[in-house]
Design goal:
The complex is a heterodimer of chains A (about 290) and B (about 100). Chain A is of the alpha/beta class and about 290 residues long. Helices cover about 60% and strands about 15% of the residues of chain A. The longest helix of chain A is centred in the last third of the chain and has 82 residues. In chain B, the strands form 2 sheets. A 5-stranded mixed beta sheet of chain B has the order 2-1-9-8-5, with no helix packed on it. The termini of chain B are far apart. Chains A and B meet through helix 1, strand 6 and helix 6 of A and strand 5 of B. Strand 6 of chain A pairs parallel with strand 5 of chain B, so a sheet runs across the interface.
């Protein structure tokens, strides 16, 4: 026996609430996407100007990860993996894809993992993969403090970041990049300028190496922050996509329920009509037999 | 016509003036000052210092304190934690929060 109209009406109202909720989430996600895109643009302008200066400095051909040239730092002969995932689990399947990408090359003897985002930490724990540290994905979209992560980066031979990239509202990708390449790749789009900055034509304080170290650290900070922002952007887009799909499904379910409700009401009316007609037929037959 | 005159004056001030430098003080997400000014002061490892027009090319790390920009409209104090200053041909750029 099917549901009664009153029950279907209650289900329809509940589905209506779900439609409204998913629509609100969809709106919030698209608003956040616009905000973060703007932040990424602003930080890019800042990075470009720093890179412009850095590219004119003639000190070393190697990117030194901002390690202080005067200090003897013992470098861990491993590759550090940094994986940037979402804080919560509402970002569709993009985190699972990212973890899968990382595990393809992960070797516990050669790599150590730092996870950003609680969802990634859970995913790794479920797969029995241990990680060195976990950082919460920053809530804010500006002035992200990446100093603790950069300090970790400076201890390792190399660092690869696994992140999520926003391609468009409907397309998000998972990617990996070596951090020093990320800095240099960002700088490729900037005109290098003709002038060379050396100690012959500039005064440096406290010293040339200190300034270069600081510039390298700063650019790593920005590149790392940009990768985090890019991942957040992709997560919001993925959430938008998930919410958009839920919204469509909820809307369809609501229409379906409305049809069921009308059918059930109609069935009851038909049943009553049948009873009345049958009753009339019976009374007519009883009158004729008298 | 008056519009053009106004435009010309602005260009003249921007391009050549022995008393002013073009100064930009900014962080990745915020511009604190962007315009012409007479001097800029800050603190580095050596101590407090001032930059005036025609200063030699200079790059320095700046320490926690106030960056003070003096322009025709007055003095602007910008509290900072750390930064880097680049001075070249009467153009000063201060990168903050990096």
């Amino acid at each position: 026996m099917g549901k009664r109209p009153a029950e279907i009406e209650r289900d329809e109202a509940a589905m209506g609430t779900l439609v409204e909720l998913t629509s609100v989430f969809e709106g919030i996600a698209s608003m956040r996407i616009a905000q973060i895109k703007n932040q990424v643009l602003q930080a890019t302008e800042f990075f470009n100007e720093l890179w412009h200066i850095y590219s004119q400095l003639r000190v070393s051909t190697f990117f030194g990860f901002g390690r202080n040239a005067d200090e003897e730092v013992e470098i861990i002969d491993k590759e550090l993996y940094i994986v940037i995932t979402a804080e919560g689990g509402f970002s569709g399947d993009i985190d699972q894809k990212l973890i899968q990408l990382m595990l393809k090359t992960y070797d516990k003897d050669k790599n150590e993992i730092i996870v950003i985002g609680h969802h990634g930490a859970i995913q790794l724990a479920q797969r029995n993969v241990s990680y060195k540290k976990y950082y919460k994905l920053p809530n804010k979209d500006k002035d992200i403090n990446v100093s603790p992560i950069i300090k970790e980066v400076q201890q390792y031979r190399t660092t690869t970041v696994f992140y999520q990239e926003y391609v468009s509202l409907m397309v998000q990708d998972v990617k990996r990049i070596e951090l020093s390449s990320a800095v240099q790749q960002k700088g490729k789009s900037v005109d290098e300028g003709d002038e060379i900055i050396t100690e012959a034509n500039y005064i440096f304080e406290p010293s040339t190496y200190d300034v270069v170290d600081h510039l390298e650290r700063s650019m790593m900070h920005i590149a790392m922050s940009q990768l985090i922002l890019n991942s957040k952007l992709a997560q919001y887009a993925s959430r938008f996509r998930a919410m958009s799909a839920s919204h469509t499904r909820a809307d369809e379910a609501k229409s379906e329920l409305h049809l069921d409700f009308n059918r059930a009401r109609r069935a009851i009316k038909d049943e009553r009509l049948k009873e009345i007609v049958n009753g009339m037929k019976k009374s007519a037959a009883a009158g004729a037999s008298k | 016509m008056p519009e053009d005159t106004k435009k010309d004056t602005k260009v003249a001030v921007n391009t050549g003036d022995a008393e002013h430098m073009r100064i930009k003080v900014y962080a990745p997400f915020k511009v604190y000052f962007d315009g012409l000014a007479k001097s800029i002061s800050a603190v580095n490892d050596t101590g407090p210092f001032d930059i005036l027009p025609r200063h030699h090319n200079f790059m320095t790390l700046i320490n926690t304190g106030d960056v003070i920009v003096r322009s025709d409209s007055g003095e602007e104090k910008i509290p900072i934690v750390r930064g880097i200053m680049h001075v070249k041909a009467d153009e000063v750029v201060v990168f903050l929060d990096v």
